[in-house]
Amino acid sequence: MEKRKIIIDVDTGHDDAIAIMMAMLCKDEFDILGIATVNGNVCLDYTTENTLRVVEFMGGGVPVYRGCEYPLVACMYGKRPTLPKKDKPGEKTHGWLLDELPKATIAPESQDAVTWYVDTLMAAEDESITLVPVGPLTNLAHVFQIEPRTVKKIKEVICMGGGYKYGNTNPLSEYNIWVDPEAAEIVMRAGIKKFTWVPLDACYASYMTKDDVQRIRDIGNRVADAAADIISFIWSHPKFIGKDVNSIVFDALCISYMLDSSVLKTIVPAHCTVDNGGGIADGQTMFDIFNGRIGGEAPNCYVALDSDREKFLDIVCEVMSKAKEAGV
Ligand code: RIB
Ligand code: CA
């Protein structure tokens, strides 16, 4: 089987870390051309440091490119004053750095992520590269504006973001899209041939319990142990202590889908529009799943409305158990 050429775009992030670990363990399935970082879960310095920690822990060999430090609009003009707080270098807020892994001793590439994307995509054959953005879409919005010819080089995009029925940052908006709605709308309008959303609806359906995490730990290798620690972070987070919450490993569902597409259920064509009006629905992904019967616009994407929780856990465990034989 030919390896799938992929680029992962991350705001690492606990769940991003699991996605990267899984992708790096699937050496027969994926040729990871590079990992781009972006502002999101934490500031760019930290998402980059966290990403480097994961890559180094997994044995290195995958280049990491620093991407955009700010969303296209929000921080610059104060349109969204409630944007995520940034840790100042040297300060530490619980859970903001991936303390489950050693500090990185490797460095990002000297080229910035956006320039690297443009160069890499322009040098590629048409429809040859799969993009897996699991953070805000700022980098990709820049890429498509700077060089629209990059679009035809993309085979497909599998994106963690958005919500069909609900949000997680406000009742309507999912975090990745809420951070940079203008970027998401630019990406949706870019004309990508196949774009699949893995939204909150699918991610929350594949929640993990403490027993599930124990199953990962029982695999008994260093990667599975680290993954179990990372997935468990939520149960020691001050915000959630004593609360009956499950762990949602959002971004890993995208990697799982590339390994076994049946993990996503009810994948329907839709027309997606992103609200960026700055009001109550700012950052909402509006999916018209009635094939133009409501909004009158033809589908521009697919959206997964559900997922198979048991299968997701099986895939994560199967991949984590590869670590020893992969020499990681
Ligand atoms: O809303 C969940 C998403 O926001 C995940 O990708 C998480 O890592 C954060 O980026
Ligand atoms: Ca993420």
Architecture overview:
It is built from 12 helices and 9 strands. By secondary structure, it is of the alpha/beta class. It has a single domain (4-326), classed as Ribonucleoside hydrolase-like (Inosine-uridine Nucleoside N-ribohydrolase, Chain A, Alpha-Beta Complex), CATH 3.90.245. Strands 3-2-1-4-5-6-9-7-8 form a 9-stranded mixed sheet, with helices on both faces. α1 (14-25) links the parallel β1 and β2 (30-37). Alpha-D-ribofuranose binds next to α1 and α6.
What separation lies between the terminal Cα atoms? 23 Å
- State the name of the first-level CATH class: Alpha Beta
Mean pLDDT: 92
Q: Total strand count, please?
A: 9
Bound molecules: alpha-D-ribofuranose, calcium ion
Query: CATH homologous superfamily - what is it?
Result: Ribonucleoside hydrolase-like
Largest sheet: 9 strands, mixed
Quaternary state reads single chain
**Shape type:** globular
Which secondary-structure class do the elements indicate? alpha/beta
Tell me the strand order in the biggest sheet.
Answer: 3-2-1-4-5-6-9-7-8
Looking at the overall shape, the CATH architecture is Alpha-Beta Complex
Q: According to CATH, what is the topology?
A: Inosine-uridine Nucleoside N-ribohydrolase, Chain A
The ordered string of helix (H) and strand (E) elements is: EHEHEHHEHEHHEHHHHEEEH
The percent of residues in helical segments reads 25-40%
DSSP summary: helix tally: 12
Strand content: 15-25%
What's the Cα radius of gyration? 18 Å
Low-pLDDT residue intervals, each spanning 5 or more residues:
none
- What is the domain tally? 1
